[in-house]
Amino acid sequence: MSKQPPGVMVYFDLQPGLRHLTNEEKGLLLQAMLDYGQTGELPQLEGAPALVWDFVQPRLDRDRERYERVCRRNRDNARRRWEE
Questions:
Q1: 0.70 cut: is pTM over it?
Q2: Burial of 26 (0-12, 13-18, 19+ CB in 10 A)
Q3: What is the three-state SS of the chain?
Q4: Which of 6, 16, 62, 78 is the most exposed place for a label (fewest CB within 10 A)?
Q5: Which residues contact 63 (CB under 8 A, 6 or more apart)?
């Protein structure tokens, strides 16, 4: 099993979409991002937050894959060092 990432990234290019959300909707989206990043469970969002989620989820998935790839590479490198 792979190590869980320490968090999720929030990118500046999300700002245009976030401008259309109320503060409450932004909070719902942020909570959805954190929950999804930690558990992988898809959020049940409606309206504008659901539209923004369609742009957020693929990025979270890519970031997780990148994190797992780096962890695998580092683990393999450490294993090779100890086997020498």
A1: yes
A2: middle
A3: CCCCCCCCCCCHHHHHHHCCCCHHHHHHHHHHHHHHHHHCCCCCCCCHHHHHHHHHHHHHHHHHHHHHHHHHHHHHHHHHHHHC
A4: 6
A5: 5, 8, 9
Whole-number Å distance between alpha carbons of 3 and 67: 9
Tell me how many degrees the CA angle 6-45-65 measures, rounded to the nearest 5.
35
pLDDT in tens, 21-76: 999 999 999 999 999 999 999 999 999 999 999 999 999 999 999 999 999 999 99
Give yes or no for a contact between 5 and 75, defined as CB atoms under 8 angstroms apart: no
Residue 56 near residue 14 (C-beta atoms within 8 A): yes
